[in-house]
Specification:
Low-confidence stretches: 6-31
Structural class: alpha+beta
Largest sheet: 16 strands, antiparallel, barrel
Number of helices: 19
Distance between the termini: 32 Å
Number of strands: 16
Amino acid sequence: MSRPLPALLSGALAFAAISSAAIGHAQPAIDPDPVHFQRTAAARAVEQGRFDDARMMYERILAIAPRDARSLRDAGRVAHALGDFERAAELLTRADAEIHTPDPELHYLLGEALWVLGRTADARAVHTHARTELASPVTERIQKLWLARIDGRLGEVAAADGIYESLIAVNPADEEASLAQVEMHANARNWAQAERAVRRFLGAVPGHRRGTELLAWFAEAQGHLDGELHIRKELATSADRAQSMSDYGRALERSGDWAGALAAYRKALHLPGADARVTAAVERMDRRMSPELAAGMAAKSDPGATSVAGYVGMAVPFGRSHHVSLGGWHELASNDGRESYGGEVTGGLVFQGRANRAIIGAKVGLYSVTFADLDAKSHSRLRPGAFGSAATKLLNNRIELTVDGELGSVWRETPRAVLEGGNVDSVTSHVFGILFGHRLITDTGVQVRRLRIAEQMDGSPQATQALAWIGADFALWTDFAHEASGQTLDDDLLRPTYLADSVVVAYRHYELWGATNTLFSDRMSLANRASIDEVSIVARKALARGRLAIAANAGGGRDWVRDLFLSRVGGSLWIAPSSRSRLSLSFDVSKESTRALSGERRTGWMTYHVDL
C-alpha cells in the first residue's frame, strides 16, 4: 500500500467507544473521601460524552489527591478514550499500583495503550494478567469483547474468532464485535479474511460508512485497484470531509488518471479537515499537469575525443496523464584540431495508463564529419529516425515488461562516436520482477544493436552487438517519506524521475557478442566478446525538506574474457529553488564499459527544469 492503514484500524481507537461506555463499570470498593463530589461531576461529564471536560476535572482532582485510585483509574480511561495513550498508560499504571483487587478492565485498557505505544513486551504481560482475571466463565458482553481482543493480540486468532462469531450470531449488526473482528484480521494482514468479515457486516448494515472505508483499504492492500476506485468514488460522492475525497484522489493518481486526481485533490482542499498533505498533493499533481521546460549542457571526454553539448526541450501534458515532448540537442566533438558535430530534433507522444506506457516519436538527425586525412573534407548528412517504447505490468504489478527501440539515432554514447559520425539502431527488452514490496527487483534483458559511422571512402563501416544480462537490485534501506521536491521528467522529457532516501546494491552478469568490419575497427575501438560480473551501489539522500538532494554511485567488475577490471564512480547534486523547478549537477567517471568501449570516459552535465 502507498500509506499505512488509517487510524480507525488502531486497536485502542477502535475500542475507545467500548472503554468510554464502560466507565463506571466494575468500580473498586473505595471509601468516600473529600473529592467525592468532584468525582461525581467528572463521571457525569463522561456519561454525557464530554470527555475533554472530564479530563480537566480529573486533572484538578489529581492535583489535590495524586494517589486517589478511583480518579487515577477513571482519568486513565478518559485519556484512553481521547486517544492520549501516553497519558493513559501513565495514569493506569499509577492506578494499578494503588488498587490491589482484580481489575480486568484496567489491565485490558493498560495493555491496549502499551500496544499502541509500541511497548509490546509490557503489553503482552499486562494482557496475559487481564486474561487470567477473566478466566472464570465470561457472560457479560463487554468482557467477551475484552477477552476476544486480548486473544487476538496474543496471537490466538482462532479463539478470538470463536468469541466474535458467537456475538455476531446473536446480532449480525453488532458494530463493535464485527469491526473488532475485521481489525484483528487486518492487523495480522489477513486481507482476504478481513474483507469477508467486513462484507458480511455491510450485508447486515448496508451503507455503513466506516465499514465501507475499511473495504476500500482492503481492496488497496490487495492491489485490487478497480474495486478500490469504485468504492472510493462512492465514498467521495457523499464526502463531507477532506479525507474521503483525498483518498479518492490517491486512487485516481495510482490508476494513472492524473487529471482526475488533481480535480479530486482540489475538491478536498475546500472540505473540512484539509491539511498540508492535501495541499502538497494539489501542488504535486499541478506540476505533473503543467508544461515543463528543460535546458542543459554537458562536457564529455574519452581516449579518442572530447565534446560539449547543449539541449532544450518542452513537454506539454494532455488528457489523463499523457504528454507531447519536443526537444533538440547539439554536440561538438574534437580531437587534434579535427571537429565534427551531431544533433537531433525530436518529437514524441507519451501515453501513460494504469499499468501500461507507450512512447512513439520521430526525429531528424544532422551530422557533419571532418576527415583529417582527406584534406579536412567534411561529410554532412540529414538522417530521419524514429523511436518507441512500450511497458506493461503483469501479475498484480509483480512483473514489468519493457521494450525500447530506436532507428537512425545519432550515436552519442561517447565523444569518439560523435566525432566519427556515429549512427545506431537498437532494440532493448527488460523483464523486471518486483518482490518483497520493491525491496528486491530482478532484471533480465537483451539488447541488440547495429552501429555505423560516417563513410570515409568506399564501403560502410559498421558493427553489430548482442548484449544479454541478468541480475538484481537489493534495496538495503528506503524512506519514501523523504524525497526531493521539484520532481520533473528525465532529460529526454519522456519519463518521470524521482529521488527518495535509499541505499541500493546491485549485481549484474553481462554476456556480449559482437562483430565489426575492418573499416569500423580502424576508427573505433570496440571489443567483439565480453563476459562481465559487476557489483554497484547507489545512495540517495534528500535534505532541507527536499529542497536539496544528493546521490552517489560506485561500481566495479571484471571482464573475464578481456582479463580487465571495470570501474565507475559518480555523483549528483539536486537543488530545488522552488517547488516547480530543479537544477541538477552531475559527474561520472568510468573505466571500460559493459558495451565493450575501451578506456576511461568522463562526463559532467548540468540541467535545469521548470514547470510553467
